[in-house]
């Protein structure tokens, strides 16, 4: 196993479940900062790109802490904010990285525009369809509810990330209460000590 | 109540382990206490329940409490056991004297000895004195010692009382003798001054003088009798041995005996301590901020369900820390600086 493959193997379990469920657009959020959402989004994007042999669009929609944009050193580039504000087109905003098969849409100027349901719906309908998988890195629900809720209504599945043995339960419950989606979000347990996980019944059905 | 039950269910294995450890240790300690305790007992027959021993109850002064011979002696022994001096004398007559001398805290040592003694009445005239020890020969040694020291104390008290009584009676005897001599002298003087026939008045005076002399002589006889009784009665009782008679001598027990009560106490304390600690853990676990401690805990977030668990990355297992992992992933994902959409990336 090559070094990159061994690193992304950490996320293969999560990616394979996403693949089995057939989710195309997924979002990762959390209750608080520091739960590992951006790392999970990045790792899952890499793992899914290798798994599906198709292009994966990773969207940094974290208006509060755009760490993926910093990782890609695209802080000064146009991105999602400009795209939603119609100040730039997708071709100018989305970066493609051929070796990893990951395309990245940085946040852009976060002060310029805020995500709206209409704008995001238009983005998903026009731009995201050209990618096999779209992964959205979202801010924490409790800190950036207004940035999360529009995405929650558009993605196939929203995942709430929490750290095992660290995230206070009342805050998670509060965050889940704020989401109040028709379909309850799935939980991704990050930094888990054990590796055994009960596979949800829906996943088993999908695999069958 | 429901949060506490939920916490108890969540930590059931921890609570079970805590209870198993504490209860297990308690049961082992209780069994050890039972199996290594040897109680030696002396059965004693006592007599002489005196009417003047009737006392009043502090709760109801009008109601009299008749104290039997057995309860009188049991109270006496229990009162003696309250004093350090008595206990010290008892221990000094046994093989524990070296331990007493070496004990850093004599009071604590004597308190331990006191707790091991038990004095119980069985009816009006029967009582038992027992001593529980982990060393079988120590029991009879201690019981014999307490009986011997008690006998010494009683004999000393009896001697002191007899001496004091004798002194008092001797003083009274001297006074009575002087009174008798005065009465005899007065009668002799009257007879000398009235040689002839006596008138009615003189005869009456002489009768009075004779009566006074008779009273004085009776008093003298009575006092002499009391002095003899005071000197002889304790000795007679002591010789007869009926006042305090050891019916069954203490024996060296070969099988465990007498540890049931302390073993039950240890067991009960262990059970209570286990329950208290478990309750404390449940309360703390409920009041402290709860976390999701594992995949099974996600059920508390229903209707949200667990989708996947991403394992913790450690240097030992994965070769990279979480910070290193993020940097490495970013390096892999954003490898060549990226090409704008539609451009050809190198």
State the gist of this model.
The complex is a heterodimer of chains A (208) and B (346). Chain A is α/β, with parallel strands linked by helices.
Mean pLDDT of chain A: 85
The helix content of chain A, as a percent range, equals 40-55%
Largest interface, C-beta closer than 8 angstroms, per-chain residues? A-B, 67 and 44 residues
- The CATH topology of the largest domain in chain B is what? Bacterial polysaccharide co-polymerase-like
Order of helices and strands of chain B: HHEEEHHHHEEHHEHEHHE
Using the CA coordinates, give the radius of gyration of chain A. Answer: 16 Å
N- to C-terminal distance of chain A: 29 Å
Q: What separation lies between the terminal Cα atoms of chain B?
A: 64 Å
Low-confidence stretches of chain B: 49-58
Structural class of chain A: alpha/beta
- CATH fourth-tier homologous superfamily of chain A: P-loop containing nucleotide triphosphate hydrolases
Biggest sheet overview of chain A: 7 strands, mixed
* CATH architect. name of the largest domain in chain B: 2-Layer Sandwich
Main sheet of chain B? 4 strands, antiparallel
The coarse silhouette of chain A is: globular
Q: Which architecture of chain A per CATH?
A: 3-Layer(aba) Sandwich
Number of domains of chain B: 3
| Distinct helical segment count of chain A | 10
Reading off the top of the CATH hierarchy, the class of the largest domain in chain B is best stated as: Alpha Beta
């Amino acid at each position: 196993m090559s070094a990159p493959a061994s690193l992304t193997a950490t996320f293969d379990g999560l990616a394979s479940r996403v693949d089995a469920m057939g989710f195309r657009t997924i979002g990762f959020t959390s209750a608080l900062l520091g739960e590992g959402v951006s790392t999970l989004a990045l790792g899952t994007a890499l793992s899914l790109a290798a798994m599906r042999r198709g292009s994966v669009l990773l969207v940094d929609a974290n208006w509060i802490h755009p760490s993926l944009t910093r990782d890609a050193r695209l802080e000064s580039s146009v991105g999602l904010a400009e795209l939603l504000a119609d100040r730039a087109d997708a071709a100018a905003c989305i970066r493609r990285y051929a070796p990893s098969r990951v395309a990245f849409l940085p946040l852009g100027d976060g002060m310029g525009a805020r995500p709206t349901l209409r704008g995001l719906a238009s983005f998903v309908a026009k731009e995201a369809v050209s990618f096999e998988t779209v992964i959205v890195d979202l801010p924490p629900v409790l800190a950036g509810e207004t940035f999360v809720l529009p995405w929650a209504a558009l993605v196939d599945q929203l995942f709430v990330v929490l750290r095992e043995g660290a995230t206070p339960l009342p805050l998670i419950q509060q965050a889940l209460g704020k989401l109040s989606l028709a379909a309850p979000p799935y939980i991704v347990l990050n930094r888990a000590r054990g590796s055994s996980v009960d596979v949800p019944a829906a996943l088993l059905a999908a695999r069958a | 109540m429901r949060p506490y039950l939920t916490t108890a269910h969540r930590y059931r294995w921890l609570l079970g382990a805590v209870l198993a450890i504490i209860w297990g240790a308690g049961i082992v300690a209780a069994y050890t206490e039972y199996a290594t305790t040897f109680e030696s007992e002396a059965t004693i027959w006592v007599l002489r329940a005196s009417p003047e021993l009737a006392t009043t109850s502090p709760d109801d002064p009008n109601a009299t409490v008749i104290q039997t011979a057995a309860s009188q002696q049991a109270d006496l022994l229990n009162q003696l056991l309250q004093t350090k001096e008595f206990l010290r004398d008892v221990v000094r007559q046994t093989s524990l004297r070296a331990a007493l001398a070496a004990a850093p805290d004599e009071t604590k040592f004597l308190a331990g000895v006191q707790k091991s003694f038990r004095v119980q009445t069985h009816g009006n005239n029967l009582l038992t004195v027992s001593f529980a020890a982990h060393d079988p020969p120590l029991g009879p040694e201690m019981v014999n010692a307490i009986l011997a020291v008690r006998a010494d104390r009683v004999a000393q008290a009896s001697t002191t009382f007899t001496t004091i009584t004798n002194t008092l009676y001797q003083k009274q005897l001297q006074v009575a003798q002087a009174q008798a001599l005065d009465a005899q002298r007065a009668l002799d003087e009257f007879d000398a001054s009235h040689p002839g026939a006596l008138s009615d008045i003189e005869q009456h005076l002489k009768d009075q003088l004779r009566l006074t002399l008779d009273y004085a002589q009776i008093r003298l006889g009575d006092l002499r009798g009391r002095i003899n009784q005071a000197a002889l009665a304790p000795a007679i009782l002591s010789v007869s041995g009926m006042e305090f008679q050891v019916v069954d001598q203490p024996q060296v027990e070969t099988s465990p005996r007498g540890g049931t009560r302390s073993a039950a106490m240890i067991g009960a304390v262990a059970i209570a301590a286990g329950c208290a600690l478990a309750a404390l853990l449940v309360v703390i676990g409920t009041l402290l901020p709860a976390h999701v401690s594992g995949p099974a805990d996600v059920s508390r977030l229903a209707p949200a369900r667990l989708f996947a668990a991403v394992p913790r990355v450690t240097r030992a297992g994965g070769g990279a820390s979480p910070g290193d992992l993020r940097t490495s992933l970013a390096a892999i994902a954003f490898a060549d600086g990226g090409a704008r959409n539609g451009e050809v990336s190198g």
